[in-house]
Amino acid sequence: MVRMDLFRSEEMSKVQLIMPAESAHDTITYLAEIGHLMFKDLNPQKSPFQRTYANKTKRCADMARKLNFFQDQLVKAQLVPAVRPPTDADEIDFEELEMMVDNLEVELLEINNNSQKLQQTVNELNELAQVLQKTGSFFSSAWYETEVRRQSGVMSRSSIHGEDRNLPLLLEQEMQTDPSKHGNLGFITGAVSRSKFVTFERIIFRATRGNMFLKSAVIEQPIMDPATGDKIEKTVFIVFFAGDWSRIKITKICDAFGANRYHFPEDAREQRQMISEVRTRLVELQTTLNVGMDHRDNVLTSIGYNLDHWIVMVQREKAVYHTLNMLSVDVTHKCLVAEGWCPVTTKPKIQDALHRAAFDCNAQVNTIFQVLQTKESPPTFHEVNKFTSAFQEIVSAYGVARYQEVNPGCFTIVTFPFLFAVMFGDWAHGIVMMVASFYLICNEKKFESKKLGDIMEMVFGGRYVILLMSFFSIYTGLIYNEFLSVPFSFWTSAYQCRDPTCSDAHSAGLIKWSYNPYPFGVDPAWHGSRSELPFLNSMKMKMSILMGITQMNLGVILSWWNAKFFHNKLDIWYQFVPQLLFLNALFGYLSILILIKWCQGSKADLYHVIIYMFLSPGSDLGEDQLFWGQSNFQVMLVLLAIVAVPWMLFPKPFKLQKLHLQKVQGRAYGVLGGSDTDSIDLEHEHDEDENFDLSEVLVHQMIHTIEFVLGAVSNTASYLRLWALSLAHSQLSSVFYDRILLLSFSYSNPLIRGMGLFTFACATVMVLLIMETLSAFLHALRLHWVEFQNKFYTGDGYMFNPLSIQTLVHGG
């Protein structure tokens, strides 16, 4: 059963706390633990930096930043340490925690810096090893060719054992140039990104005007770039050139392309020695790096054990100091004054928390707790649980309820999923939704502990809404008798075909052989018949009008409930009564005609009846007459509707003016017996009442009257979306079933059948279970926000937001 405090918000009281400065921190902490007091900012004119505890808040924010840094390091290291519950040994003072966090941050930063430098050196050595290996293979192949040429007699021994050991690498170029220009050549080796190599080679060729020789080799596996630390595909190159000017140009080009240059010895013995040294250093550095990473993981693991507890501590301290900044300090700086709102039922708990805080702090003076009398509008507080919270969020998304006005969330629990189901009626689709909602509910503890995405978090939060939507969808699907658009014959039909083959069902129609109605839902014989669509359209359209008029009448009745609760007789007599008469004189009468027509089985044209009710009131209805005296009754209803419009428009503004004049005269007579100071106070207190403007009130009332009169027509028409979406859902389901599933199963090939079944399942899930669900959800939302809530719901309140540790832990 829905609690009555969901129907109206809880009664609130404005309270004042006067607490000693030495116990203020612990007092606010104890109040935050029970979470029943919403503090008011008494220093709105001060900036955050001018407040008393600004430095404390800044320290808490800095600690929160450091704890976020620890979290990022744990995620980066892919460590998930076991979270253990806090023990008494873990309870440390906030000052000690601050020192510990500072030391841990310094240690982690130092470890990260050292590891980064070591990793950069390792990356450089890995790249150098690749360069030595690839470049060494260039020279080895050159010397091998030299030996082959020597044995073949192409080259003389003196040229082989000369100073230029690189001759075979440049043999082709040297044979084409003047021998007098031959000299000692230089070379540069390094590695460049593979994506830049083609451009790199072209630029070097143009810069040296072709006076160079370049050879390259691709590194098979991506390697870590020393500069960025990213894995990049690289190419090793060696460029031979002549002259210092070419060296300078090639060096600048290498720097421009981010190519890393490395020294490469020409002597084979030095090459082997350098490769050995690089491998040795790599092993040593990798060992050192692994030791450092193990030490970092140990530090992070020890942090991870208590990180959640530390985050809660910092959040709590930050919230406490933020609240202390909202308090005002007396002139002696010995007391702090707080004001706020609390539910009336929680006053004993707040007083008990104040006594406990004073006792634990050994305060000489207890905190003074007193209730203030005020004309301020209190905040709105509805106590909800995990079932009702989603429905309340639907209402609050439109606007927070005014203090103690009727809460639509109480009715939305039933009406929202039901109107959704009217548009989504198919009990096969309802079963799928029910299974999905049951899965979310049965695993809610697992999902609550996970970090969900935005869409998944929204779906999980509305799991009970989806559950009720699925229940009502199954119910309406049974009424429509649709299971993936296929009807089921649970009972004997009242109609039969003209022949056993039912070949003329679409053309000649069916024969009614029994006058007993189908026990529940739509007779399956209508499916596939000639009159299926006209019958279902007529039924669903009239059903939509009945539901819309019922819900709008409920909204008007709730406006009376609000007026009665707030003792507003003007709204009862000059708003509720004429609105109820106008709405039911037109559309309530239409609903009664629909019911009479269904009960009598009449063929009366209701369109004709309603149109000529205004065009020709009192005229003979002929075959469209449903009951005796209908013409005269319609004339009376038209007169009531006409009278209701000025009834809504004129009396209320003049009544308000009369009440205002009486109030002003009453205050004037009351001031005669008082002093001048009392007169000034009363004038200041009621300054807003002196600005009463009849024309402004008349315009405001005219807007509301026009809005209701036009809204009565447009809102009734808006409920026809129930019929339209229900028809669209049924027809889409029928098309998918007939044109995909049945068509594919008409073939004997199992592959075609399997593809048809898969396509049908995908179309059903994507279109009917996702897109149609979202569409029906949004339309049901519109019907509640506009057509239902605008009859009685103001929605200009503000939410009760108490200081609560539980909210910080779960929501912060």
UniProtKB/TrEMBL annotation:
<feature type="coiled-coil region">
    <location>
        <begin position="94"/>
        <end position="135"/>
    </location>
</feature>
<comment type="function">
    <text>Essential component of the vacuolar proton pump (V-ATPase), a multimeric enzyme that catalyzes the translocation of protons across the membranes. Required for assembly and activity of the V-ATPase.</text>
</comment>
<feature type="transmembrane region" description="Helical">
    <location>
        <begin position="633"/>
        <end position="650"/>
    </location>
</feature>
<feature type="transmembrane region" description="Helical">
    <location>
        <begin position="418"/>
        <end position="441"/>
    </location>
</feature>
<feature type="transmembrane region" description="Helical">
    <location>
        <begin position="757"/>
        <end position="781"/>
    </location>
</feature>
<dbReference type="Pfam" id="PF01496">
    <property type="entry name" value="V_ATPase_I"/>
</dbReference>
<comment type="similarity">
    <text>Belongs to the V-ATPase 116 kDa subunit family.</text>
</comment>
<feature type="transmembrane region" description="Helical">
    <location>
        <begin position="462"/>
        <end position="480"/>
    </location>
</feature>
<feature type="transmembrane region" description="Helical">
    <location>
        <begin position="573"/>
        <end position="596"/>
    </location>
</feature>
<keyword id="KW-0813">Transport</keyword>
<keyword id="KW-0812">Transmembrane</keyword>
<keyword id="KW-1133">Transmembrane helix</keyword>
<keyword id="KW-0175">Coiled coil</keyword>
<protein>
    <recommendedName>
        <fullName>V-type proton ATPase subunit a</fullName>
    </recommendedName>
</protein>
<dbReference type="InterPro" id="IPR026028">
    <property type="entry name" value="V-type_ATPase_116kDa_su_euka"/>
</dbReference>
<feature type="transmembrane region" description="Helical">
    <location>
        <begin position="543"/>
        <end position="561"/>
    </location>
</feature>
<keyword id="KW-0406">Ion transport</keyword>
<keyword id="KW-0472">Membrane</keyword>
<dbReference type="InterPro" id="IPR002490">
    <property type="entry name" value="V-ATPase_116kDa_su"/>
</dbReference>
<keyword id="KW-0375">Hydrogen ion transport</keyword>
